[in-house]
Amino acid sequence: MSLSKEVLFFAEQLSSGVMIFSPECEVLYTNPVAQNMWNHKAHSVLEGFSTGMGEKSISQYEHPVMQAIQSNRCICQTLLRKRGEEQTIPQWVKMTANPIQEAGELKYVVLALEDVTQSKSVSDILNSRSYMLDQLDVVDTITGLYNARYAPVLLERTLAEVVERQGVLSVCVFDIDHFTRLNEAKGRSCGDDVLRYLSALLGQHMREGDVMARTGGGEFLVLLPDCEAKEALARMEAFGEQLRTAALSCIVRPITVSGGIAELADGEKGAQLVERADSLLYLAKLDGRDKFLTEDVV
Questions:
Q1: Does 107 share its domain with 242?
Q2: How do residues 139-156 score in pLDDT, each as one tens digit?
Q3: Same domain as 237, residue 285
Q4: Residue 87 has pLDDT above 60, yes or no
Q5: Domain limits at 67?
Q6: CATH, residue 59
Q7: Hey, which of 72-76, 207-211, 234-238, 244-248 has the most confident mean pLDDT?
Q8: What pLDDT digit, counting tens, does each position of 26-61 carry?
Q9: Which residues neighbour 195 within 8 Å (Cβ) at sequence distance 6 or greater?
């Protein structure tokens, strides 16, 4: 199929890359800009592209040119390819495939190519910063744990996952004993040091899949999937015992915590489960503090 001089002249003058394909997906023309973007071989035009980093390469039938031929409409998509023979530098290419008809039949497909690597990188940075800001909304700035705002979301998500696989879930609600008094006597900076130390130590007693959140001044919520209440009690008591030996310069008395542990019952809602654990926390405080209680212990 021959292309008119007008079409070729127009394509030669464009500042963006242009390729022209036959209805059989044969490359009829490549302008100089497109040639400079990479070494266009017949197979490389339709292969070696993906929708993003780490994604599997799309098939030829998913390529904008093939989609334009099949759907007979303009297709625009930004895809990732490797640039150069060293295959190390990623290149983002915006492709716009436009089918051209004559007398109701597809004559050829014009593919416009634009290297958008730089602008894509800027966009990724902005998205990354947006993600970081979102993280600040759900993470406690002192401890690095999830905050009270996000705790209910984590609870429902964890509960749904446990129920789906018919697993076990224990919830622990605990509080630092006399934390308000500590802040008043030693200052907020000392209280913050205690929170940071406690959170780091708590993390050492967690397993993959466990969830920790700071839900108040000295209050914490711990979700322990695949962990029965008896095992959860042993783990939290080990944490409490180690916490008592903490040697922080701003404190004189040992740091102790009181908590309640409840195991998920059939058909129970997340809020009900936390409420049971919270009731056990209250009983632990009435019983002298510095302990964890389960319903079996009570």
A1: no
A2: 888 988 989 988 998 999
A3: yes
A4: no
A5: 5-121
A6: 3.30.450.20
A7: 234-238
A8: 888 888 888 877 665 544 677 778 777 666 777 777
A9: 142, 143, 176, 214, 218
